[in-house]
Amino acid sequence: MEGGGSSSKYFILVHGLGHGAWCWYKVVTMLRSEGHRVTALDLAASGVHPARIDEVHSFEDYSWPLLDAVAAAPASERLVLVGHSFGGLSLALAMERFPDKISVAVFIAAAMPCVGKHIGITTELMREKAPKDLLMDSKMIPINNKQGPGTAILLGPNFLAERGYPLSPAEDLNLAKSLVRPANQFVDDPMLKDDKLLTSANYGSVKKVCLMATEDELKELQRYMITLSPGAEVEEIAGADHAVMCSRPRELSDLLAKIGSKYD
């Protein structure tokens, strides 16, 4: 999903685990209607991206559609990167690689890594601090890539209804149930275990805004991650579930436009 023409800001939107560009359809429409340029990406083996999950051999491969999009953006056009949930990890990688091309990064109910710790710590913290039954009826699927055997997650319909989309319109929940794909968290990927990957000079130099959904069950975990990144701005969206772009699209779009204007 891409928008062209004259616009005041360029937003690149990155989905969360198992999702795709489709989940941003309301926000894309609203931002474009206000004259902004917007690209909503499918990361590798997500959304309508043609790769199968076994063909995506690393976290870098998974994030490559975002890295390509940022690299291809004109040098004169500083970007507003927006990541939801697990998408925050791919945002961090792009920020480390291209800090001068990004005016601000917005983490929406998202994993927000910090300098000095490996980015996989966000997944480890979720396992430690989240409810034991967090994944509910989600299925674990064996996969095999060049890094060896692993496990993918297919988010279950009850999980989506109760943890992801409880306050979102029924049509958005049904869309998610139809379109989610198995997802790899890359827990054994060396990149996610490298505590020197994110540097103060690059990742640490990019302005960060953390958007918290007040009705998200993982908001306390997000609060903890914020304490690891002093200087990050914090905003809240009232009445939003984890799928903020579906439960509160108008509020989210307005806030993204406001953030984009603030960080010229």
TrEMBL record:
It comes from the Eukaryota. Residues 12-254 form the AB hydrolase-1 domain. GO terms for biological process: jasmonic acid metabolic process; salicylic acid metabolic process. GO terms for molecular function: methyl indole-3-acetate esterase activity; methyl jasmonate esterase activity; methyl salicylate esterase activity. It holds the Pfam family Abhydrolase_6. InterPro entries: AB_hydrolase_1 (IPR000073), AB_hydrolase_fold (IPR029058), MES/HNL (IPR045889). PANTHER family: ESTERASE PIR7B, METHYLESTERASE FAMILY MEMBER. This is AB hydrolase-1 domain-containing protein. It comes from Oryza meyeriana var. granulata.
